[in-house]
């Protein structure tokens, strides 16, 4: 099956810093999403981004489908950004709607 | 409701006990998904419903796992004869149409088998 690798596995920042999270995937995809799992376990959909660039406030994401990677940018980080960030994909040509998740990046933002 | 509701929030089961986990999706959401998340890992797909039809159950780890959505709204994930390796958070998600962008996840049920 498709492999999804995220880096770095852990990231510690001071409030106000910027960061870039990376997601590499091993096959062509027709769906790529970024999620944030907060310390209480709630998974929040951040972006649906199988290709191109999107921005939402301090967050933005870019997917280069031909090179099989996606980047999530967090600017001016805040303590509330802490949690685990997951990349999840559906391989192209797959029938149905299952997502394959990466292992996540654990982000800690200190005040 | 305003979000995806899962109950119970926590469940402790003795090994061998049967459990039932409930998911109330957002009203009108056609698609419903169950995922299993072990500690420190990403969620793993279990099964998918479109309305009342179970279109994909390839992620269910054994025949002890069973899911249903008889009226196309509320879904129940049942685990029979629970084992310690079943300990995990079980997440339910729903979406408006048969596309897997725009998922809304519930807060999950944390199952501990002792």
- The shape of chain A, in one word, is globular
Largest sheet, strands/sense/barrel of chain B: 7 strands, mixed
What structural class do you assign from the helix and strand content of chain B? Answer: mainly beta
Give the ordered list of helices and strands of chain B: EEEEEEEEEEE
**Radius of gyration of chain A (Å):** 14 Å
Oligomer type: heterodimer
Q: Describe the global form of chain B.
A: globular
Per the CATH scheme, the topology name of chain B is Immunoglobulin-like
Largest interchain contact: A-B, 23 and 26 residues
Provide the helix percentage of chain A: under 10%
Query: SS-based structural class of chain A?
Result: mainly beta
Largest sheet of chain A: 6 strands, mixed
Helix content of chain B: under 10%
> What is the CATH first-level class name of chain A?
Mainly Beta
CATH superfamily descriptor of chain B? Immunoglobulins
Mean pLDDT, all residues of chain B: 93
**What would the CATH topology of chain A be?**
Immunoglobulin-like
Beta strand % of chain A: over 45%
What's the CATH H-level homologous superfamily of chain A?
Immunoglobulins
CATH architecture of chain B: Sandwich
CATH class of chain B: Mainly Beta
């Amino acid at each position: 099956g498709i492999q999804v690798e995220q880096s770095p596995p852990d990231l510690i920042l001071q409030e106000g810093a910027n960061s870039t999270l990376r997601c590499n995937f091993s096959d062509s995809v027709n769906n790529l999403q970024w999620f944030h799992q907060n310390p209480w376990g709630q998974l929040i959909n951040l972006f649906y981004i199988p290709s191109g660039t999107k921005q939402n406030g301090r967050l933005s994401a870019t997917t280069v489908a031909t090179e099989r990677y996606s980047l999530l940018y967090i600017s001016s980080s805040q303590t509330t950004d802490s949690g685990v960030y997951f990349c999840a994909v559906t391989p192209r040509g797959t029938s149905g709607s299952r997502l394959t998740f990466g292992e996540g990046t654990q982000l800690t933002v200190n005040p | 409701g305003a979000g995806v509701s899962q109950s119970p929030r926590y469940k402790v089961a003795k090994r061998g006990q049967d459990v039932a986990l409930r998911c109330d999706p957002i009203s009108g959401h056609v698609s419903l998904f169950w995922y299993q998340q072990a500690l420190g890992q990403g969620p793993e797909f279990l099964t998918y419903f479109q309305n009342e039809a179970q279109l994909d159950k390839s992620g269910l780890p054994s025949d002890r796992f069973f899911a249903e959505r008889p009226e196309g709204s509320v879904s129940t994930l049942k685990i029979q004869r629970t084992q310690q390796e079943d300990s995990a958070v079980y997440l339910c998600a729903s979406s408006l149409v048969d596309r897997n962008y725009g998922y809304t996840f519930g807060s999950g049920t944390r199952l501990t088998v002792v």
